[in-house]
Amino acid sequence: MSEGSCKRMATLLWIIAVILVIAGIYVILARRDLLWGIVLIVLGFLVGPGGVSIFNV
After folding, report:
1. End-to-end alpha-carbon separation of the chain, Å?
2. pLDDT (tens digit, 9 = 90+) per residue, 37-54?
3. Contact (Cβ atoms closer than 8 angstroms) between residue 35 and residue 18
4. How many helices (H) and strands (E) would you count in the chain?
């Protein structure tokens, strides 16, 4: 992969991770569904390129 496409992929993964974490927080606070919210937050952390990424394994 070229350096430009790696940066675009990292940016895309960050955006997806942020959306998942925000959705998880929303589900916990607004819909009062703790389990589903935690699942979304954990998925956000797994997808995020800054932490443990499931795509780097």
Report:
1. 16
2. 999 999 998 887 666 555
3. no
4. 2, 0
